[in-house]
Each structure stands twice: as C-alpha cells, then as structure tokens.
Amino acid sequence: MSKILSCGILRLFRGNTRLSNKFLKQHKIWNPKFEKQYQTQIIANSKFKFDLENHNIRSEIRDKEYKPSNDPDTFGGSYCLSDESDDADDLKEEEYIKELPSRDKETIKYARCIKRHLDKRQVKEALDVLEVEMKRDRIHPDRYIFNLLISGCAKVGYTRKAFKLFFKMKQYGLKPSGGTLTSLFNACANAPTISDGLAKANRLREIMIESDLQPNEKNYNAMIKAYGRCKDLSAAFQIADEMREKCFLIQTETFNFLLQACASDMEFGFRHALLIWHKMKRNDVRPDIYSFNTILRCVKNCSIGDLESMYDVINDIINKSKNFLKEGEGELKVIASNENGGSCVQTSESNTNISSATQTDLVLPKEVFYANDVPNLLCSNPHLGNLIKINEIRKPEDRLLLIGGFSGFLREMKFNKVTPNIETFTMLLEVIPSTNSAEKTLISTIKKDGLKADIDFFNTLIKKRCLRFDYDGAKEVLNMIKSVKLKPDIFTYGILSLSCKTKEEARELLKNMKQRDMSMNTQILGAMLNQGCRNQDFDYITEIMQIALDEKIRPNEAFLCHLSKFNQQCAKLVNVRHKISKSLEFQRNYKKFREHLHMWYEENGISGLTLEEQIEKVKRNPYKKFKEKTKADENDTVKKKKIRKHIKNVKLHDLSINENKEKAEGS
Q1: How many helices (H) and strands (E) does the chain have?
Q2: Residues 28 and 134 in one domain
C-alpha cells in the first residue's frame, strides 16, 4: 500500500518538486532517493540549467536511509533512521519507474517497424502501422513518422497518398520540415501521370507561398526535378533563376536536374542541354558522372529542333567559349590550340555569325576548319570540324557525332577527370551506330577499362540487335551472359520475345521462363502477338490469346491495337477480294480467328465496344497496386472462371507435348 501510494503521489506532483517533497515529508513517506531521481529528471527535461545547491528543499539527513516500522496503526508507516539498505519492494518500485515507457520510445518502435516495411518496398504494410496499429494503441504520430511515410510513398510514386499524409500532418498541428517538402516534390517527380504530378507540384508551391515556407537548396533542387520530369521547362528554369536571386550557390546537382529537364523535351531538348552544359562550364562548375550520363540521355531521346534556332545556339556557344577570339580586321587570327592538339585558323573574310547563313540550304561557313575533323560542341573549345550541314541530323548516332563521337566523348570525360561507369557505356551502346564493329569496339573499351558488364548492358545489346533484325546475334548474347556468370532477368526474356517469329520459338522461350520460375507479362505476350500478326500466323495469334486467358493477364493498349489492326487487315482483304482471301485455308483460319476473338473479348469484358472504349476500360488505376484486392474483384474472378468453357484450354506445361503431337501428325 505504501509503495502504490507513494508512486501515485509522485506522479501527481511531478510538475512541482517543492510541493511534492513537502507533502511527502509531512506525511512521513519521504525517501530522499525519490528527490534525487526527480530532480535529475527535471534537469534533463528542462531547457534551462539551475544549481541544486540553491534549491530550497534540502535534506539534512541525505546520507541516511530510512526503514519503515511495522506498526499497522500508522498511516503509511513511521520511519526511523537506519543504516540498512532498501527492501526488495523499494528496489522493484524504482525499477518500475525507470522502465515506464515514454511517448518517444513508443514512437521510435513504430518508426523502426515502418522503416523495415519501406526497405522491403511494402508500402501498404508501412501505412497500416500508422492507420491501424498506432490508431489502435492511441499513439499520436510525430513529424518523423509522417516524414518516413511521405518519403516512402514518394519513392514508389504513390503521389496521392503522400499528399494525403501531408494534409493529415497539418491536421495534427505538425509543421512540415525541409525534408517533408523535398519528399513531396519527389512524389510529384515520380507521379504515374505527368498531369497529376504537375498539378500537385503547382498546388504545393501555392501552399508554400501561403504558409510563408522558405525553401532551402535541397527543396529548390527537388522542385527543378519535379517540374523537369513533368515537362514544364519554363518553370524549372524560373526556379533556377529564383535560386540565383536568393544568393543560393548553383552547384553540379542543380545543373544535373536542369539537364534532366532538358531530356524531357523530345523536340528541343538537345540544344537546351548544350546551352546548360556551357553555362555550367562558364560558372566553373565541374560536371560529374551524372552530368555526362544525362547528356547521353538527351542525345538518345531529344532532337535538335528547327534548324535556324539550332544555328543560333551553335553560334552562341562558340562565341561565348573561353578560348574563342573574335575575328580581326584584314588579318589572320590563329586561335589557341584545342585539347585534341588541333588549331583553328580563321580568315578575315569569314563570317563568324552562323545564323547569317542562307535559309534555303543552311550551310555552315567552310572557312573555319580544324586539324581534328570530328565536330565537338561539348568541349571547352566547341567547334564543328569539317561538318558543313546539319539539316540531315536525325538519328542519335548523328547527334553523338556533334559532341565528339564515341572517342571524343570519352576524351571529354577524361579531361574533366570523370571515370565512366557501366551505365555510361550502356547509354553509349544505345547511341552508337548499329553495327557489329561499333559494338565490338565498345565492348573492348569496357574490358580495357576493367569494368564488368551488368545484365542491363546485355539487355540493351540484345534489343539493339533485335531492332536491326539480327535475331541470331541477339541469341548469341545469352552465351555472353553465361560466360560472365550472370543470369537473365524478366527484361531479357521480354526483349528476346521480339525475336519469336513462330509459335515454336515462342513456346521455347516460355518454357525457359517457366524453368527459371519467371511469370510472363502483357509486354512479352504483346511482342509475340505482334510477330504473329506481321506473319499472318493465325495459330500463333490464337495461342497467345489463349495463354493470356489461362495466365489471367489483362491486355494493355498495345495488345488490343495489334488484334484490332490485324482483324481490320483481314477484313479488308476479304472486302477487296484479294487473291489471298480466296484460298480455303485463309477463309477457314479467319473464321476460327473471329470466333476466338469474339469469345476472348467476352472473357475480358470488352465485347461490343470500340477500340477506344476497350482501351479506356482496360486502363489500370496507377495507384491500385498500392491497395489491397477487394472482395468484388475476387467475385468477378470466380464468375470469369465459370464463363470459360468454349475455348480450348492450353497450359504452359502442355506446350512441349502439343509440339511433339504436331510433329508426329506432320510426319
């Protein structure tokens, strides 16, 4: 009884040490250990320091210990001086008080649980910790919990949930930190749709202005990243200007995000990237590996735009370069030698303004020439070499030539003391000429630099050979993968599906996937379906449709377009009475195909709809994967199983058996 009462009174007067000590002394249940313990606790929790010697309450017998008497008539027991130690109950009481869980300890426990789920990309389970477990235990989340969940949702592109957590955080009265804003803009950058990401980014900027939230450098970089990926280049550059106005130092990371913004502009991104690159050079900001890799992405995806503007950009780059000297009047000017050892010679009659070329042929001035004939608009001394016209630059390999080509690009990296990684060579593989000799040169350079190719590099090599219809060369890459002790992944088989021209090859590929416990997807079946439609192989097409049903793979837009286009082509042949349509084999196969197509549409719930309506219906909610499967969806699956009775059931493990039967019938 004494123990319980003293513990309760100490809790009651925890906020007022003087009152609690006085109360306990008057009722003779005083223990100086409690005084020392709670004084220490008050000091630890206080923002200010004070001296214990000036405290009004001081025990005159601090070094003595008390032992309660055994008189049952005395309330709380009378205490007398004793040299003996505390009894077992007092020790247990002290241990119990020390082990009382605080709110911070509880929050840390939930935070660690959330981090474990996020490390495994289990977003739904991490959200359940906040929405189910903490709500059940009546634990109020703090800002750290919300920042963890917002950051986790941002990484996987769960943009809507990230903003819902942000608004819920404000309802709890928690002020967002700089990390909160950075995660929210990252959520906008990783949004599944550009429109959704852009709308959320604009709304967040409005909230920051209304709440007078001043962004820091990381916030600005995240804003540039978000607007760049959402293809709003003007907003991205305005934010960069705002950084400079507020005296923020524009560093390599900011320029890299600006280059990412340029890569999102498919029409004018290449020339924007050149301007940003030389702006970085003039500001004495050294590029890093991400800068060079982003330039290669611009080379791959972006065109040069209209020719007149491109000439203006080239003229601006050359005139503003550090080693470029203006032409003199009536004399010959020798410009400083470039890094490749070549020197530029220019006559007084030459016109340095490239934009003054005629608009009909847009020919670059021939008077400017270099010892090195390869153009390079990326180096410190940008030049065009022996390039006369740029109106035929359309392919990525042509744009790579403008920045020095394969060897010139690597020399520029070496000049800036940047070591290429395997990602650099993977992106170079996508922009070099599509020839075996160019690929061998690149592979030998990788071996010379001591780098080890990863599976992404080999996947790119397979894709490059498949796109030039070198299917045998693409299959040879599998031996290369095996020689470096790597294993094919789902992307490897997805790219190899482009080479499956017959159903036998498709069966072999699906059989290998099953042996490696890899499940097929819509992209793989769509690539096979495309090959079957090109070759007008009705059996191949029907089999792919059946596999999609058996594996419960919903079609995507490309899958539906392939089927619709093939059906229209066959109907057109019949309408115009083409000689192919007059054969009995074509008529029989086309009739079976139409029957299978009608039942396949019914199975997927898109029968009687136009192509646009079908595409709209099969479109998936990008946020659906973050949610649990509803009971309604499970009931729909059961109903679909009952409908399927007219279509032949083909299982993957029966593919090899069916293949042997067909061979036997043919013999």
Answers
A1: 32, 4
A2: no
